[in-house]
Amino acid sequence: MASTRNARARAAAADVTPKQPDAGQTTGIIVAVMAFWPLFLVALLCLLCIVSIVGGSIAQHTPVDSQPGGNSGALDDVLKDDGKGTLDEKNVPLPDAVQALKDAGDECDVISPIVLAAQIEVESQFRREAVGPDGQRGIAQIPDDIFATYGKDDDGNGTASVLDPVDSIHAQARYLCALSDQVGELIDNGELTGDRLTLTLLAWNVGIESIKTLGTVPIGLLAYPYEVRSEFESFRSHETTPAPPPSPSPGGVGTGPPGGAGTGPPGGAGTGPPGGTETGTSPAKPPSGSGFDEAVFRKMFPRAIPFYSYAGLTQAMAKYPAFASGSGDVGKRELAAFLANVNHESGGLIYVEELNQSAWGNYCQTSAPYGCPAGVRAYHGRGPIQLSWNYNYYAAGNDLGYDLLHRPELVSTNSTVAWGTALWFWMRGGGSPHSAITGTGGFGATIRIINGYLECGGKRPDAVGSRVSAYRKFCELLGVDPGGNLTC
User: Fold this and answer.
1) Which residues touch 24 (CB under 8 Å, ≥6 apart)?
2) pLDDT at 248
3) Catalytic, out of 345, 353, 354, 455
4) Is 345 a catalytic residue?
5) Cα gap 399→28, rounded to integer Å
6) Does 42 score more than 60 pLDDT?
7) At 150, is the secondary structure helix, strand, or coil?
8) Which residues contact 154 (CB under 8 A, 6 or more apart)?
9) pLDDT at residue 8 above 70?
10) CA distances to 52, 87, 262, 359, 459 from 82, in Å
11) What is the pTM for the complete model shown?
12) Rounded alpha-carbon distances, angstroms, from residue 201 to 126, 144, 261, 403, 437
């Protein structure tokens, strides 16, 4: 996609034929040079001194390619920053764009609210009526033909418009995710080498066809992807929250602020249950008036392994009293929606850890200040909703009172901890499925938040169907109508 920067670059690079000096001008130049040759000699000596001092570092410099590494300081931070973390809402100059950024940032795993905000800042500085030189419009600077494909009436006002910030942001996210899919295929096929986010942003800027010719060609530091990346820190929140109070957990207390909700855990089931104990001595009560008890739980999950106990679930619920607490049908639908997604993620409460062990090394955000102290393979999918990524373990542990960053295995050995991470993600992490199901999003919105990148939009109709089928069944067991908006 072209941009105002492209237009300026094209103008600057336009061919210009220099005027040739005549004979008189040439003679004047020679005389001037001879008159000032002592100054030239002094300048040359200064240059040689400078080279002798810094020559070593210049000689050792290597170009930065599309998968940068080996740099230091602020530049290194920019090159490695993946845009994850919590959006600093105060720094978004258009307040009515905040929620759209948070919702659309969960469209796929390569983007985030911070990525979207940074790109909009580069494209339009959040100006609603911005128009680019090649026909791009709105805060995300999307051409009309692209918006025709990816734009929808996302704010429900009856009109899909590229000039509507909410519609524009969601179209921006969908288009980036579509480009990311294509970039991923090129990388997987060996046709392209580099970091997926960088290449996705470059594809937005110059078009997917143009980047197919890159191969392993380095991407310059002044290129569009790094211009966007340099804005990430401007939109990342660094507010700290007090550490949670001590808990009688075997893991201890997490320290420091949550590191961001992330994009939601990948789907997939696990390798089978280890043993495990539960904290507490007696189960808490399920939500009042829900009709949910251990007998209903058994009907929902007839093959559930002992690790995923009803007691562990109800004890974990005590941490989140707002869960399934809505009056009338709202609370029952939320309970059914949560358990239906859990059913799919865990294979009916059978699997504890992610089955695909080849993916276990993919969930470490090394740029996070707390890193991955348990090892890069330690933060794979675990528990009822397959919690993954170090920043999710970190944030969930802080919220629950367990040091899950250093002891992620607690999610697969302690039933209450496992259920707690699922409820944490549902209530506070990953875009809040709680808000979606208790609002107007319906069950389909919860699927989109949890695993929409891999399943929604016709990508995995079987997986979506599995979730919807379980939701209908659980609603029936709880005596509630499932409502509308069931699919994504």
Assistant:
1) none
2) 27
3) 345
4) yes
5) 77
6) no
7) helix
8) 100, 104, 160, 166, 167, 169, 170, 171
9) no
10) 38, 13, 11, 18, 25
11) 0.47
12) 18, 19, 22, 35, 32
